[in-house]
Amino acid sequence: MTKRKTTKTSTEELDVLEAHLAGTLQPVAPSKEIVQRLRVRIQMPNREEIVSRLGDWYRLFFVFGGVISGMMLLLTVARAFYYLTGRKG
Amino acid sequence: MADPEFNEEEILALASQGDRDSFGQLYERYVERIFNYVYYRTGNLHDAEDLTARVFQRAMNHIQKYTDRGVPFSAWLYRIAHNLVANWHRDRSRKQEIPLDDLPILPTKGDHPEKNLVRSQEQEALLRMIRKLPSERQNLLILKFVENMSNAEIGAIMGRSEGAVKSLYHRTLLALRDQLEDQNLNLEGE
User: Which residues of B touch A1 (CB under 8 A)?
Assistant: First the structure.
């Protein structure tokens, strides 16, 4: 980096600037460890996904409905069993 | 570099049906490019790794929503990356100048590693200036120089026409040149 010494034309200045940008903004190569860690990470459900599942009201409705229906069925069977065995007794 | 064996359309179709192996192929193809983009936008390895993972997680979760309407899959990925980086900057809630210590030198492709250990003063100054540019100008420079994209490809990602990208690029160069002049610095011709 030096103090400005010469007067260049605008086009020359931009050409030089472009050359320096090309030299500075080089593609980098992430290490194999980083690539591997990332690969492992994307195989697992992340926090966002879990939160989005919880926010899925449609699915939650069916899960909740399924649980309640199951409980009602169990209760009905238990009551039927109780009355059947009660009659026999 | 086009890989004749890699049929992106077919792989995308399988990936959108939940095929993880196909998504894995997309990951292999794009992970370095997305990492590069995020790395230059954030300036540190840790956040670059974290955000790159989130880009692919989000892409995997929403790949059914991707439909090829003239926007390539890579552009879709870059848009996700752009949004996540924007959120990351917002979360930090302060306009920061990344300390140079936070911008470690990673080996660049195709060069001898020892060549990359020292980033010249000129490059450091230029990086500082780039980081002070508005977000979309930073995007443009990264996509053009790091990702080596054409104006048309950049336009597809940024949602601008090729001409608009060309014009923005010219204005960005002028702005950088003016900043160099303001600081009374002169980049030597290479």
Answer: 121-122, 125, 185-187
How many beta carbons lie within 10 A of that of residue A80, not counting itself? Answer: 10
pLDDT at B3: 58
Q: Would you say how long chain A is, in residues?
A: 89
Nearest CA in chain A to B19: A43
Total domain count, chain A: 1
Angle of helix B151-158 relative to helix B73-92, nearest 10 degrees? 60
Q: Whole-number mean pLDDT of chain B?
A: 81
pLDDT in tens, chain A (89 residues): 444 444 567 788 888 889 989 988 988 888 888 888 888 877 754 555 556 666 677 778 888 999 999 999 999 999 998 888 876 55
Residue A12 is assigned to a structural domain of this protein = no
Report the SS3 class of residue B20: helix
- CA-CA distance, B58 to B62, in Å (whole number)? 6
Looking at residues B122-126, what average pLDDT do you find? Answer: 82
Flag if A4 and B186 touch (Cβ within 8 Å).
yes
Set out the domains of chain B in order of their start, with CATH numbers: 1-104 (1.10.1740.10), 118-190 (1.10.10.10)
Task: Identify whether A21 is part of a domain.
Answer: no
**Domain interval for residue A58:** 29-88
State the pLDDT at residue A2.
Answer: 47
Judged by DSSP in three states, B186 sits in: strand
Q: List the single residue in A with minimal CA-CA distance to B44.
A: A30
User: What value of ipTM does the predicted structure carry?
Assistant: 0.74
Q: Is residue A10 part of a domain?
A: no
